[in-house]
Amino acid sequence: MLGSRYARVALFLAAVVAVQLLAHAAEKPFFLTQLTMAAYYTLVAAGLSLLMGYAGQISLGHAAFFAIGGYASGYLTTVDLTARREGPLVAVLARLHVLVPHADLYGGEALSFHPWAAFAVAVVLTLAVAWLIGVPVLKLKGHYLAMATLGFGTIVYSILLASESLGAADGLGSVPPFPLLPGISVGGGRAARVANYYVAWGLVALALLVLSSLVESRVGRALRAIHGAEDAAASMGVDVARYKLKTFVLSAVLAAVGGSFLTHFNAGIGPAEAGVMKSVRYVAIVAVGGMGSLWGTVATSAVLTFLSLRGYFGTLDDAVFGAVLIAVMLFSPDGVLRFDPRGALRTARDRLRGSGVAG
After folding, report:
1. Mean pLDDT score, 305-311
2. 169: in domain
3. Is residue 288 part of a domain?
4. Exposed, middle or buried: residue 241 (CB in 10 Å: 0-12, 13-18, 19+)?
5. For the chain, what is the domain count?
6. Which of 97, 46, 61, 105 is nearest to 80 (CA)?
7. What 8-state DSSP symbol labels residue 291?
8. Is 33 contained in some domain?
9. Is residue 288 within 8 Å of residue 337, measured between CB atoms?
10. Partners of 99 in the beta sheet?
């Protein structure tokens, strides 16, 4: 099991390198920018795959966690605390280099959170929100749980859209990049495009390693038992509420990490990232990739997100995505990586007959 897990991650990283080399050979460096953005969205899908495919809990609010991570990190690195420099808390944070001076839009000096300090605060904030939301919401099941998480996502979207301090409909801008190495930063411009690409997909590889380790551990067996039958799992001594809550929080934190990194990469974020259709799209990606397949979800998310970001389908993007979803549910309901050509037509025919459509 251990060797297989690391072998899959190694093959995944080899594929990442191969794609970068192909983009360079084809003189299409812009592809790397799109693929980098796709990686950060894939982090959300990977966490949601664990929650839905193994714990059996559906969430239509994960776009909200993505936005919370991005907005929290972006706001803290752009808010100016110069006027409060003499305050005891601000003074302590400045001495600890949590707050750092930087040039503002008008050439003056502003005092804001260091990007990595802001990132840490964003992750902790998302963890706390997910915990507070998860405790009452995860007591619900099925479509009741889906509607509750949908309501949470709608609330977050409305707050972001109405908050002037967060840019309202325009969102946040001028967000500084994450400093990595001298001369290299996440979102640091064209020269750092390749470095950004490897950072993004390195995060996805790390997430896959952690999630696959969980799936193959005792925790994974407990989650599968909960997915199969909660009452039976509880009767066997599985702490159902604790496992569901921790899985929910972990998936939310992964979404926040993706949101924070994408915000610093793009130098901004808008309220559309918390939109309901974003959450629906993440759920659909997990369904297309296969409910219990982390690798299928990552592959599906990478391809479909890249095509959407490239704008290949224009205004028909959602229609094409819907057609893909319908086709997969008909011909390969277990996900694209488990497609069986011989049984696909038979499965579709049986379903049509059962619905009374076919003779």
Report:
1. 87
2. yes
3. yes
4. middle
5. 1
6. 105
7. T
8. yes
9. no
10. 113
